[in-house]
Each structure stands twice: as structure tokens, then as C-alpha cells.
Amino acid sequence: MEMSNEIEVNASAGDVWAAFNDVERIAPCLPGAQLTEVDGDEYLGLVKVKVGPVNAQYKGKATFVERDEDALKVVILAEGRETRGQGNASANITATLETLDEDRTRVAVVTDLKITGKVAQIGRNLIPDVSAKIMDQFAGNLEAMLSASDSDDSSSPEGASAQESGDKPVFSPEPEAVDLLNVAGPPVAKKFGPLAGVVAALWIVRRLFKRRKNKKG
Predict the structure, then answer these.
(1) What is the reported pTM?
(2) Cα 97 to Cα 71: distance, rounded to the nearest angstrom
(3) Tens digits of per-residue pLDDT, 99-135?
(4) Which residue range is the domain that position 18 belongs to?
(5) Quick check: is 64 in a domain?
(6) What are the phi and psi torsion angles at 200 (to 5°)?
(7) How far apart are CA 91 and CA 213, in angstroms?
(8) Residue 160 falls within a domain, yes or no?
(9) Euclidean distance between CA atoms 130 and 149, whole angstroms
């Protein structure tokens, strides 16, 4: 599934480029995402999503495939597996920056997404509808982060680095799961909500049946 989105950020292209190349700073801007560890050139973390009552957590890694500062283009490959379940997800994300003016940047994002598992079964048709709204949330979070960084920089020692080399854990707040139905809004939720409810009910019944079976065994 390929999705194309565009966002505009109230910040210079240089600041946005620096943020996109600093995963520790940008990861919390993406709804449902959490960076947990930096392992060399790999960034380990998790993403939480849900469709109504059905939750899924994908744990995996992200790596830079390409970073072209002249073209203001970055390509990131993210891969994850459900922590409870058989689902997998991978996304090849290409972000290209364009300067609109001194303090405004357009970011074109093309995502090639592959997803399997219970969330894919229920929410696959929702993903194109919610991707633009999630990107809008991301843009707002990115702007807030950059504004806060500008304030912090004024009091930070000169030459301080945003990232250090080597493996290290990352301490960031645990994210809330992104509810695809809520993000999609009433029209889409009304269209797909009943289907999600039926599948969720079947999933819950199956879990209860497994628990009872385990107790009897």
C-alpha cells in the first residue's frame, strides 16, 4: 500500500532537516511511536495502534537508507513485529523537503506500507483515510518541538550535540495507542465501525475460549 501526504511546517528547511536526521527528537512527534534504544545505526522502538477495542503493539527498528542533504531527501526503512500476535509491519518512508520561505517548509512524504495481522484485517481500509490526519498531528508536534528547541538552545552550552555515538537506552514517555477509528472521524468510523466491532467481538471470544481451554488443561 503506497500513500502520499504533504505537510507544511512553520520552521526553516534547515531546522526541519536537522530534526528528520535526529531520530531521538523526531520519534515522539509521531503519534503512537516511542524510541527505546539507539544501537549503532539502528533505532529501536515501538508503535502502538488500535481499532476500537483491538490493540496491537509493533516492536522493531528503523534505519536510514538514504540521506541526501543537497536534495533535502531522507529515506527511512522501519520494520516491526507484533509483540502479541503474528502480525508484521514494514514501511519504506521517503521524505523530501521544499523551502517555501525563510520560516516555512513543505514536506512531501511517500510511504510504502506493508502490514499483516489483526489490525491489518480490521483497519487496512482505514489507513489511507487517517494517514493525512496523523501527518497533520505530526506536523503540529514537530513545530512545537522545534519551537521548544529554539528556546532551549539559547541556554544550552555551545557545541552540545543532540546525539552521541554508541549504543544507549533512550528514556522517552510511553505513547498512547493511535485509535484508527477516532482519528478517521465520524463519517469513516460510521462506515467501518460495525465491521471492526464484529471482528473485535470474535477476537475477544477466541481469547476467552483459549483461556478456558488452558485452565481445563
Answers:
(1) 0.69
(2) 8
(3) 999 999 999 999 888 878 766 665 566 666 667 778 8
(4) 2-155+165-216
(5) yes
(6) -65, -40
(7) 37
(8) no
(9) 28
Rounded Cα distance between 94 and 169, Å, is 26
At 126-172, the pLDDT tens digits run 666 667 778 888 888 888 888 887 666 544 444 334 444 455 555 56
Nearest CA among 65, 60, 2, 7 for reference residue 33: 60
Q: Compute φ and ψ for 122, nearest 5 degrees.
A: -90, -45
- CATH number where 59 lies: 3.30.530.20
In a domain, residue 138? The reply is: yes
User: How far lies 213's CA from each of 2, 210, 216, in Å?
Assistant: 41, 5, 5
62 and 211 Cβ atoms separated by less than 8 Å: no
Q: Is residue 79 part of a domain?
A: yes
Distance, in Å, from the CA atom of 106 to the CA atom of 102, rounded to the nearest integer, reads 12
Write the pLDDT tens digit of every residue in 75-93.
999 998 888 877 888 889 9
Across the strands, what pairs with 58? 47, 82
Dihedral, CA atoms, 174, 180, 182, 184, nearest 10 degrees? 140
What pLDDT, on the 0 to 100 scale, is given for residue 198? Answer: 45
The candidate with the shortest Cα–Cα distance to 80, out of 110, 103, 47, 120, is 47
Count the domains in the chain.
Answer: 1
- Whose cell is 509521531? That residue is 30
